[in-house]
Every structure is written in C-alpha cells, then in structure tokens.
Fold these 2 entries.
Entry 1:
Amino acid sequence: MTKLSLDELRAKYGEADGGAVYDPRFRRVAERLFSADGQRSFPYSGIPTLLKAPLRAVDWMAPDLERLEIALIGVPMDLGVTNRSGSRFGPRALRAIERIGPYNHVLDCMPTYELRVADIAQSHADIEHHVRKVVDAGVIPVSVGGDHSISLPLLKAVAKHGPVGMIHIDAHCDTSGSFEGCKFHHGGPFRRAVLDGALDPSRTIQIGIRGSSEFLWEFSYETGMTVIHADEIDTIGMAGVIERSRAVAGDGPTYLTFDVDSLDPAFAPGTGTPEIGGLSTREAQALLRGLIGLNLVGADLVEVAPQYDATTNTVQAGAQMLFEILSLFVGESRGRR
Ligand SMILES: [Mn+2]
C-alpha cells in the first residue's frame, strides 16, 4: 500500500466517522454496525440480553418466526451447590454486560450477526423438558447457569440419539457420588450423565483440573475419561491441549461445558468454589478458539456467582467466554472443519 501524504491522510480520514473503514475484511464488520449516516446503536441502550442477541419470549417457536440456529438460554438455578450459592444470579449479571463482541478477529466472524440467534425465555423449572423442546426444534442450546448441576439435564436433552462426547473445562472433574444423600449436586453431574447414557466417557476430556478434591474423581479414570490437570498445561502447551481435545472428541456429536472456576481466581473470583493455579483468560480464549470445527451440539457456561466479585471481572470474563463459545457455531454453520 502506498504511503499517503499528510494532506491525503487529512482528506481521507479528517472528517471520517467510525463506520468509514476501507479494508474489505473489516468493512463488512463496520457495515453491519454503522448506519449509512455513521450512527451505531449505543452499547448501553435497549433491553439487556445475552451478548445483545434479540430477545424472544415464550412464543419463540411460533410458526411465523424464522427458525433459530442457536438459543441462548439463561438457567438461573443454583440448588446443586455444595458450598457458596449465588450462581442463580449469573444469567442476569451476564445480560447486563455490554460491548462483548460483536467481532471475533481470530475466527473472523460476527456470531450474533451471522447466526440466527436469540436469547429465549428463561427456564426456571424443568430444564430438561424445556431444553428438549429447543433441541427438538432443531435449535442448538447454549445455556448460561446456574451451577454445574444444570449440565446433567442439558446433556440429557441433547443426547437424544445416544451418548455424546464432551469438552469439559473446569477446576473439578464433577464426577463424584452423592453428598448428603443427594446425587444431583454440582460435584457429580458427569457421573450421572454417564450412568444415564447421555455421556460417552471415552469421548470426554476434562481440562484445568486442580484443587484438593482429586480423591473424588476416580470415576473419571475408571470410565476412561481423559483428564488434563492445570499443572500439566505448561508442559503440554495449549496447542497440545487443543490437539488432545480434538482427538478425544473426534467427529461425533460433542457437548462443550465451561465452568468459570476453570479460570484462575485472579481473573474470575466470582464463583462458588474458586481454586488457585487456574487458566488465564488468554489461555481459555486460545483453548476455545482451538475447538473450531468440532461437531458441537450444545454448550453451557456455568458457576458465575457475581456477588463474590465486586469488580465485575468474573461476569466480564464469563460473557467473553460465552462470545467465544458462540463464535464456534459460526464455523460450524459455514462448514469450516
Ligand atoms: Mn464444575
């Protein structure tokens, strides 16, 4: 590109608004965001929704509506926590975060513009029943919890043709048995999912595992899940972790679950069971972006408990991870593998 003189630069950029972008790759982004007269909608305006996706209420499946590809679903349920509660406030807190996206420069996509996506009505009661309606309509559920126990009904809803594989990013394997006589707490959904025939352990990888609960996770090893501890990541390298993840998941239908406590509490203290020594937000972004092209049939982001983080960094990081997750489905719809 020839270098412009100062006068030429003044002529080209002096009065240009933010929507005047000349690089064709970026112009298509700007064209979607700015009106012809250079205006854009304020990031803080309108009704807050997950990633600013359009809001659809309970009639989201009405026949006159265009078929969705992805349903963003708030699941404000934290009755499965074993210690600090509060992730019931996660979906609402994520909705209030502004200016996430809309452009993902690494995957070169604008997920909320390129996918037919909506934030649909919240599920308060029967998660599996509600989400199965989404799945039966041919729409992929991407849910925001809530504690990690919600992944069990979500997995059962997507696994209607048999057990699915899973990429599980978390500080904990969540494959323990009953606590206090309850099987359905947030430390055990993936044991139940295997036993209920919804999850294929041989196609399951658990990444970022650490803390003092290793003695609880023998079910992961006995069933042949692949477990990558946080302390192994520097040795394997994130490229190696991605390679292992892709090899374990293979081409079959795969669920993606992201527990915000996989992130180090330096980045995300707002969660019920924080564990030091975790992933950085940059590592987590690289990992998620590395999953592009997998056959993802659903996803969730869980355990954001906003009241333990007065800075809102956890909600910010959670919303950003949700954006990365949604970006993976643009690749899917483009057939990028
Ligand atoms: Mn978890």
Note: The chain is about 30% helix and 15% strand.
Entry 2:
Amino acid sequence: MPGGLPSIGGRPNWVRSNTLAGQLAQLGLGASDIRYIGLTNSHIDHIGNLEMFPGATILVQRAEWNFAQTHPSEDTPDGARFNAAHPMALIDGDYDVFGDGTVRLIATPSVTPGNQSLLVKLPKTGAVLLSGDVIHFQYGWDHRIVPGNVWDKGKTLASFKRLADIMTEANAQLWIEHDKAQSDMRRFAPDYYE
Ligand SMILES: [Zn+2]
C-alpha cells in the first residue's frame, strides 16, 4: 500500500518501500501462489495485507478469532481485525501445518489470547523459533520482562517457559522479530535461509 496504512489518532504509520508484493515478485511468485498465512495475532502490525491473499487460508488460533469478535481494533477504520469472509482455519493449540513436523504453530497466549509462535525446521539452518509478540526485544527475553501491553501476565510467563523448553528440545534459535538489532542481521526476500 503506497504510503502505508493511514494512521488513526496519531498512531505510528509503518511503511516499507519494498512491498510484500514486490518481494514475492522478486521470487517469481504471485499472491495466488500462497496457500497459508500463519497469523501471529490480530494487532495492526500483523494483519496488514491479509486481503492481498484472498485464496490463502489464514491459520489463526480460535482464541484469537473469538477475541477479535469482542475487542474491536482501535487501529482500523471499522474496528474489524479480520474479514469474516476470508478462508480461515481456527486452530486450538499447537498445530503441525504440513503433518511432517517441519512447520509448527505453537500457541503462546500473551499479548492477546490467541498469540502464536512458529517453529520451522530447515535442512541447513536448523530449527528456528519465530517468537511472534510473546516478546519484543532481546533484552526483554534475557531478563524475562513481561511487556506492558499484555492480555495476561501469567500466561505470558508460561509462554516464555514454553519457548525456552522448545529451544532446548529442538535446539532452536529464537528469532525476535520486533528486535531491530536482530532484524538488521537477518536476510530478507529475495534472499533466504536453507
Ligand atoms: Zn507485533
């Protein structure tokens, strides 16, 4: 979206000059090639561009779907977090997306009731755990600081433990997507990890 999603009430306006469509095009892909979208949560910085993929199934925790029905977003013009007509799979807890253990949704209730993380097992890179919004910064993870905007503090602490246990079991790296220092180190499309 040129210029990004218009901000409401003076909230930040996030913009990337290389759009999602542009990154996909660099990979020789179009929106119709995408089968699944794993949704971390229904905050404004996670739901942009969903309607660019009308044929893709959104994998969302049922708890997040229910939350969205009773908690209108302050950041969208009509308060909606999802288009109810979009193909959606409502997930209860962890979910093995392809049935072979390579991509697993991990339920990590925290900032919202249906926040989820993603465990990806790559042949060369190994296991990578994408935190989602359970934690926003490396410092917060190192010191186990619960973010101020969480839906449930106790569940957030339990989700911290869950992530730490998975890191041990799967020998996984933790990627904290909101951490700028980490983000600056990552390769982005059309570059990739094997
Ligand atoms: Zn976020």
Note: Residues 43, 45-46, 133, 178 surround zinc ion (CB under 6 Å).
